[in-house]
Specification:
Elements (H helix, E strand, L loop, with lengths): L5 E5 L1 E3 L5 E2 L4 H9 L10 E2 L1 E4 L8 E2 L9 H7 L6 H6 L6 E8 L5 E3 L3 H10 L12 E5 L3 E7 L2 H10 L1 H7 L1 H8 L5 H17 L2 H20 L9 H10 L5 H4 L3 E6 L4 E4 L5 E13 L5 E4 L7 H7 L11 E2 L2 E2 L6 E4 L7 E7 L5 E4 L6 E7 L1 E6 L2 E6 L3 E4 L5 E5 L5 E7 L3
Antiparallel strand pairs: 1-6, 1-23, 2-5, 3-4, 5-7, 7-13, 8-14, 9-12, 9-13, 10-11, 10-13, 12-15, 16-17, 17-18, 18-25, 19-24, 20-23, 20-25, 21-22, 21-24
Helix pairs in contact: 5-6, 6-9, 7-8, 8-12, 9-10
The structure holds zinc ion.
Length: 420
């Protein structure tokens, strides 16, 4: 009998407090759709679904022919399942963690170090930076999804400095003027942005809380009087302030782009890119690491010096932060989100209605497949597995999966892998 190379996984749910509550959460909907015995607790946050072999959330294998209990254990026994190149380059580990996120309350504003900085930080502060790896991330919206990402164009930041005097007060006139006078020369722009941002992050707590309270009071009054508060980014300011009162992150919204993704649109967060997830449901894929440097909207430690030194102070418009997927010229059902890092790619497979058979192609990488919509029998000798919304399959390298589709509205699948 052929060895089992394709099997279903039961994945780990993380109930972080920022998650969407009960049935509002896509994570909750997916797990209850996959397993009818799951009862959603309507008071409980369902923040993340971890589809991978991370030690803090190793997926359980649902195949009684396999003696290992978890995916991590199985990969350790069968490293060849990773694919020959992946196995060698990533030392026998699955290089990515695949997730679904349901965000109700903003996550902290943060950035992740590149590999070089990660090695240095881990050596200096192993408690704060637990590993030596970089942590590039990609988010693909499942529902309308909102985040902060990268520095805004200078004109926008200068506009806020003019319109929001409390923000100007936190930055100070010297740095603000430097930014106003920097346009045109990218080197000067970066220096001026860094200076402004560093001033804000180093502003004495009482001073910025005073300014923030004044700003919130003013915007509330303007809103009550029926005035448009867009010039102060009033709606987002009030929302974040209600979640994190007195937090410096409320001013960070004047520096960073507010990016809105429609379902299927993606955002790639490379090293040193400041970002925060604000609201919505998404697929996320990342390199295996826990290295995060925080910048606000958090009760956790902010390492101001590391943060201000590491960030990429490269302004760009919000539209430039949407990461394009590329249609596979050989398969009209497939679009690939292939970020400029070796650790992971995500493939979107959208099979139209009326198609009855579809072959999930073999690749020289282990992959994890999540069903968002549709129903099928998945055949990969010697296995035959019924899959439906919420199902998660592990597919070993070079295995093909033949889908006999049993739904009238087609299928939508996301597959994380490592294309080298
Ligand atoms: Zn992040």
């Amino acid at each position: 009998m052929a060895a089992v190379g394709v099997f279903p996984l039961k994945c780990v749910v993380q109930h972080y407090a920022w998650g969407k509550i009960g049935s509002d959460s896509e994570v909750a909907k997916l797990i209850s759709s996959d397993d009818s015995s799951v009862v959603i607790e309507q008071e409980k946050p369902y923040a993340e679904l971890w589809m991978g072999a991370h030690p803090k959330g190793d997926a359980v294998i649902c195949d009684n022919r396999i003696s290992q209990k978890t995916l991590g254990q199985w990969i350790a026994e069968h490293p060849e399942c990773l694919g020959s190149k992946v196995k060698d380059i990533f030392q026998g580990q699955l290089p990515f963690l695949f997730k679904v996120l349901s965000v109700n309350i903003s996550l902290s504003i943060q950035a992740h170090p590149n590999k070089e900085l990660a090695v240095q930080l881990h050596a200096q502060f192993p408690d704060r930076y637990p590993d030596k790896n970089h942590k590039p991330e990609m988010a693909i919206a499942l529902t309308p999804f909102e985040g902060l990402c990268g520095f805004r164009p200078v004109e926008e930041i200068v506009g806020f400095l003019k319109n929001v005097r409390e923000f100007h007060a936190v930055i100070g006139s010297e740095a603000a003027e430097m930014l106003e006078n920097s346009t045109g020369d990218p080197g000067k722009v970066s220096d001026a942005l860094k200076k402004c941002f560093t001033r804000m992050m180093n502003c004495e707590k009482k001073a910025f809380v005073d300014q923030l309270n004044k700003l919130v009071k003013r915007v509330l009054e303007e809103a009550a009087a029926g005035k448009d508060t867009a010039a102060s980014n009033g709606e987002l300011l009030l929302r974040l302030h209600s979640q994190f009162p007195g937090d410096v992150g409320c001013f960070v919204i004047y520096f960073l782009n507010q990016v809105k993704l429609q379902p299927g649109e993606a955002m790639f967060l490379g090293a040193n890119e400041p970002h925060a997830y604000l609201n919505g449901d998404c697929i996320e894929c990342m390199a295996c690491s826990d290295n995060t440097v925080r910048a606000g909207l958090t009760p956790k430690l902010i390492d101001v010096h590391t943060l201000c030194e590491m960030l990429s102070y490269t302004p760009a418009p919000a539209g430039a932060k949407i990461f394009p997927s590329v249609r596979d010229p050989c398969d009209p059902c497939v679009s690939v989100y292939d970020p400029p890092v070796p650790d992971f790619s995500v493939i979107k497979i959208e099979v139209p209605s009326a198609v009855e058979r579809y072959m999930v192609s073999s690749i020289d990488s282990a992959s994890i497949l999540l069903v968002i919509r549709g129903k099928a029998t998945a055949k990969a000798a010697p296995s035959q597995i019924n899959i439906h919304r919420g199902s998660v399959l592990f597919i070993a390298a070079n295995e093909r999966v033949d889908l006999c589709i049993d739904s009238t509205d087609g299928m939508l699948l996301f597959r994380a892998c490592c294309v080298l």
